[in-house]
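Sequence decides. Consider this:

===
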Amino acid sequence: LELTLISPSNTKSTLIKAPNLIEDNSTINMRLLSKNFLDENATGVWTLNIRSIDPNNYFKVNSASLTIRGH
């Protein structure tokens, strides 16, 4: 599983890259953080790319959410 988040200004951050993270009928619930977006404006369209690293591993994404917190 590889998750890459792309900001409205096209900054990219690979949040996770773990080939063996998903098992049959598993549910993944985790909080991921990135410092790549520090000082960026959060307004706009964010893109979450989700892909399987293992070509024999297929999965279904039921939902994903994004919470932006500043300091």
Observations:
- DSSP finds no helices and three strands in the chain.
- The first strand starts at residue 2 and ends at 6.
- Strands lie at 2-6, 12-17, 47-51.
